[in-house]
C-alpha cells in the first residue's frame, strides 16, 4: 500500500485519498478526496478512476484524474486534470491542498509509484477551467536531494503568484523547507527563511 505523504504541523489539513491502479471487474475502480471549501461556499473534489487500458499490445492500467469544481452559487464543472498508463497495482495518491485566497485557483499533488514513479503538482484555474501540470521530479532534480519531492505539500503562493510547497522533513530537502514553484519554470527556487507566503484559503477565516 502507498505510504501517504507526511504532514508537517504547519501545513493546512489537505484532503487525501489513495488506491492502487486496478480494474473493478464490470465497473471502473474509483476513489476521491473529501471536498475542500473555498471563498463564498465554493467546493472542490479530486477524483481518480482506473481500469484496463484495453490495449492489445500493453494490457496496462489506465488512470484518469478529474477535479469536480463547484463555484460559489454556480453549477459544478468536471475538469480533466491528467491521465496516465502504466503498471497494474501501482500505488496512487491524491492530495487536494485547497483554494488560493481569492478563490481563483485550486492546488494539489498527484503521486504514482511503480516502475515510473512520478509526482505532479496541479494548478487549476477556475476562470478557464484548465488544470496546469507541473512535474515536481523535474523541478527538484538538480536543486534538492533525492527523496525531497515525496515530502512536499502545497501551503500557498507568493505575492507574485508562484506556488509554495513545504517539506515535512527537516532532512529530505536539506536546509530549505519552503520552495517556490513556477509552473512555467524549469526548477524550484528555495525561499529564504521568513519569506512571506499567502496561505491557502481556510474556511472560517475569511
Q: What can you see in these coordinates?
A:
By secondary structure, the protein is mostly beta strands. The protein has 1 helix and 16 strands. The protein has one helix spanning 136-139; strands at 15-20, 23-24, 27-32, 36-37, 43-52, 61-70, 77-86, 91-99, 105-112, 118-125, 130-135, 152-157, 163-167, 178-181, 189-190, 198-199. The strands form 3 sheets. Strands 2, 3, 4, 5, 6 and 7 form a 6-stranded antiparallel sheet that branches. Strands 1-8-9-10-11 form a 5-stranded antiparallel sheet. The longest helix is centred in the last third of the chain and has 4 residues, at 136-139. The termini are far apart.
Q: What are the defining features of this structure?
A:
206 residues, mainly beta, six-stranded antiparallel beta sheet, five-stranded antiparallel beta sheet, 2% helix, disordered N terminus
Question: Mind sketching the topology for me?
Answer:
Blueprint: E1 15-20, E2 23-24, E3 27-32, E4 36-37, E5 43-52, E6 61-70, E7 77-86, E8 91-99, E9 105-112, E10 118-125, E11 130-135, H1 136-139, E12 152-157, E13 163-167, E14 178-181, E15 189-190, E16 198-199
Antiparallel strand pairs: 1-8, 2-3, 3-5, 4-5, 5-6, 6-7, 8-9, 9-10, 10-11, 12-13, 12-16, 13-14, 14-15
Q: How would you classify the helix and strand content by structural class?
A: mainly beta
Radius of gyration: 17 Å
Count up the domains: 1
Oligomer: single chain
Strand count, sense and barrel status of the largest sheet are: 6 strands, antiparallel
Mean pLDDT reading = 88
- Overall form: globular
Total strand segments: 16
Percent helix range? under 10%
Low-confidence stretches: 1-12
User: What's the end-to-end separation, in Å?
Assistant: 37 Å
The percentage of residues in β strands lies in over 45%
H/E element sequence: EEEEEEEEEEEHEEEEE
Number of helices: 1
Amino acid at each position: 500500500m502507498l505510504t501517504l505523504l507526511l504532514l508537517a504541523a504547519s501545513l493546512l489539513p489537505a484532503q487525501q485519498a489513495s488506491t492502487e491502479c486496478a480494474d473493478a471487474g464490470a465497473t471502473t475502480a474509483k476513489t476521491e478526496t473529501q471536498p475542500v471549501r473555498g471563498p463564498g461556499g465554493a467546493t472542490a473534489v479530486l477524483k481518480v478512476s482506473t481500469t484496463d487500458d484495453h490495449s492489445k499490445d500493453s494490457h496496462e492500467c489506465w488512470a484518469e484524474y478529474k477535479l469536480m469544481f463547484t463555484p460559489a452559487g454556480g453549477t459544478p464543472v468536471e475538469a480533466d486534470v491528467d491521465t496516465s498508463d502504466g503498471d497494474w497495482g501501482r500505488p496512487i495518491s491524491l492530495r487536494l491542498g485547497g483554494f488560493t485566497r481569492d478563490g481563483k485557483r485550486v492546488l494539489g499533488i498527484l503521486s504514482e509509484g511503480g516502475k515510473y514513479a512520478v509526482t505532479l503538482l496541479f494548478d487549476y484555474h477556475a476562470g478557464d477551467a484548465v488544470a496546469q501540470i507541473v512535474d515536481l521530479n523535474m523541478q527538484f532534480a538538480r536543486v534538492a536531494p533525492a527523496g525531497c519531492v515525496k515530502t512536499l505539500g502545497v501551503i500557498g503562493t507568493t505575492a507574485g503568484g508562484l506556488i509554495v510547497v513545504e517539506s515535512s522533513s527537516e532532512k529530505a530537502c536539506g536546509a530549505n523547507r519552503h520552495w517556490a514553484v513556477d509552473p512555467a519554470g524549469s526548477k524550484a527556487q528555495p525561499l529564504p527563511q521568513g519569506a512571506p507566503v499567502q496561505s491557502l484559503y481556510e474556511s472560517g477565516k475569511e
